[in-house]
C-alpha cells in the first residue's frame, strides 16, 4: 500500500509530479493559454463585480492561501486578504455580495474553515473552494469547487495536497485574469512554466532526497531551526518550518527575512540552523544581506539557491539547489526539498512521521 516506500509521507512526496499534473490536466490549453474551469459557476458579470477576495484556511492550506495572495494581486489586481479560519470566524468582517471567498482545505471537513465559509456565504459572498476530497462538507456548501485531484493523502503531514493547492491557485488566478482581461499575454508564458513543473519535480526529486539525507545527518541534533524567505517564498518558509516541527518535534519558526532585525536575530548563534530560501528573483540581493547577517552571528546557513548561483554556496554551510523557474511556480518547486529535509530529520530521530503525536488528519472540531 506504501508502494515500496517506508512511509506514506515519503510516497506522497514522490507522488507530487503526478499530483500537480492531475490538478492542471484537462484544465488548460498551453497553445491558446485558455483555462477551463466550468466548476466555477460564476457569470462573467459576477466575476467583473468582485472587489475583494478572502482566502480562509488552516495550517498548510493557509500557507497555500498566502501564496495565492501574491498570485491573485499580481495577476488579477483584486485586493486579497488571507485569514486563518479560526481568526476569520471571530472577527468583524467587511464582506458583501462583491466579495469572493476562497476556502482552501485538503479534507473539506475542517471545522473552522467550514464555519468561516458559512459566515462569508451568509454575508453574501460567492464561495469557490479549493479542496481535495470529493463530496466533502466544504465542497457541498460552496457555490463551486476546484478539486485538486491529488489523490488520497494518508500521511498526517500535508505534502502533495499543498503543491496541488498551489497549482489550483495558479489556475484560478489565470482564469480570473482572463475573465477580467488582465494580462492575458503574461499568463500564457506562465502556463507553459506550470506545464513543465511535473517533469522538473520528477528530475529533481532524487537529487533533493540525497542532499536532504546529508543535511539531516549534520543537523538533526539541533533543537531549533529558523526558516527565512521573502515575497512569494515567505509562505514557503512558514510551511517548511511547520513540516519540521510537526513530524520531528524540533522547534522551528518561519519568518519573513526582513523581520530578522526586529527580533529573531537575537536567537542566532552557532547552534541555530537557518534555512534560507534565496532563489534568483527580485528580492535575491535582500536575501543575500540577510544571510550575511546570520553568518556574522555564526548561524549555520542552509541555503536554497538557483542552480548556477556561486555566491551563496560559498557563505552557506549547506546548499540545496533549485532549478531555474519563474517566480509563480517557484513555491511549488522550493517546497519539495523542504518536505524531504523535514522527513529525513524526523526519520533520523526515530519519529513516527505518518502519525505524529497529538495530530489528526482531519480537524473536525474547533
Ligand atoms: C499540516 C497539516 C495541517 C492541515 C490543516 C488544515 O501538515 O496537515 O496543518 O493543513 O489541519 O487541514 P485541511 O486542509 O484538511 O483543512
Automatic annotation (TrEMBL):
Residue numbers of the full-length protein present here: 246 to 611 of 611
Catalytic activity: D-fructose 6-phosphate + L-glutamine = D-glucosamine 6-phosphate + L-glutamate
Record-level GO cellular component terms: cytosol
Example GO molecular function: glutamine-fructose-6-phosphate transaminase (isomerizing) activity
Descriptive protein name: Glutamine--fructose-6-phosphate aminotransferase [isomerizing]
Keywords: Aminotransferase, Cytoplasm, Glutamine amidotransferase, Repeat, Transferase
Active-site residues (renumbered): 361 (for fru-6p isomerization activity)
Primary location group: cytoplasm
Amino acid at each position: 500500500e506504501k508502494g515500496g516506500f517506508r512511509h506514506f509521507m515519503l510516497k506522497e512526496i514522490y507522488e507530487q509530479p503526478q499530483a500537480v499534473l492531475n490538478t492542471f490536466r484537462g484544465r488548460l490549453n498551453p497553445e491558446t493559454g485558455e483555462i477551463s474551469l466550468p466548476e466555477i459557476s460564476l457569470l462573467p458579470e459576477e466575476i467583473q463585480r468582485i472587489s475583494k477576495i478572502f482566502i480562509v484556511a488552516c495550517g498548510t492550506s493557509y500557507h497555500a492561501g498566502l501564496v495565492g495572495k501574491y498570485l491573485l494581486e499580481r495577476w488579477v489586481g483584486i485586493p486579497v486578504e488571507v485569514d486563518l479560519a479560526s481568526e476569520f470566524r471571530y472577527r468583524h468582517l467587511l464582506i458583501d455580495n462583491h466579495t469572493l471567498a476562497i476556502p482552501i482545505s485538503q479534507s473539506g471537513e475542517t471545522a473552522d474553515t467550514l464555519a468561516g465559509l458559512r459566515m462569508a456565504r451568509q454575508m453574501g459572498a460567492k464561495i469557490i473552494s479549493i479542496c481535495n476530497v470529493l463530496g466533502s462538507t466544504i465542497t457541498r456548501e460552496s457555490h463551486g469547487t476546484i478539486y485538486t485531484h491529488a489523490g488520497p493523502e494518508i500521511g498526517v503531514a500535508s505534502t502533495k495536497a499543498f503543491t496541488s493547492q498551489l497549482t489550483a491557485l495558479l489556475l484560478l488566478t489565470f482564469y480570473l485574469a482572463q475573465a477580467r482581461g488582465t494580462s492575458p499575454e503574461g499568463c500564457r508564458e506562465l502556463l507553459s512554466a506550470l506545464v513543465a513543473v511535473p517533469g522538473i519535480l520528477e528530475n529533481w526529486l532524487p537529487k533533493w532526497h540525497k542532499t536532504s539525507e546529508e543535511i539531516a545527518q549534520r543537523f538533526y541534533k539541533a533543537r531549533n531551526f529558523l526558516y527565512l524567505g521573502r515575497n512569494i517564498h515567505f509562505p514557503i518558509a512558514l510551511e517548511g518550518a511547520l513540516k519540521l516541527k510537526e513530524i520531528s518535534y524540533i522547534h522551528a519558526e518561519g519568518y519573513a527575512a526582513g523581520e530578522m532585525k526586529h527580533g529573531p536575530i537575537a536567537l542566532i548563534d552557532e547552534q541555530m540552523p537557518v534555512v534560507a530560501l534565496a532563489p534568483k528573483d527580485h528580492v535575491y540581493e535582500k536575501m543575500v544581506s540577510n544571510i550575511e547577517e546570520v553568518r556574522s552571528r555564526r548561524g549555520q546557513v542552509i541555503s536554497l539557491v538557483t542552480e548556477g548561483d556561486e555566491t551563496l554556496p560559498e557563505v552557506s554551510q549547506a546548499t540545496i539547489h533549485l532549478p531555474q523557474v519563474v517566480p509563480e511556480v517557484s513555491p511549488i518547486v522550493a517546497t519539495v526539498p523542504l518536505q524531504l529535509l523535514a522527513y529525513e530529520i524526523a526519520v533520523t530521530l526515530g519519529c513516527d512521521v505518518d502519525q505524529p503525536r497529538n495530530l489528526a488528519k482531519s480537524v473536525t472540531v474547533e
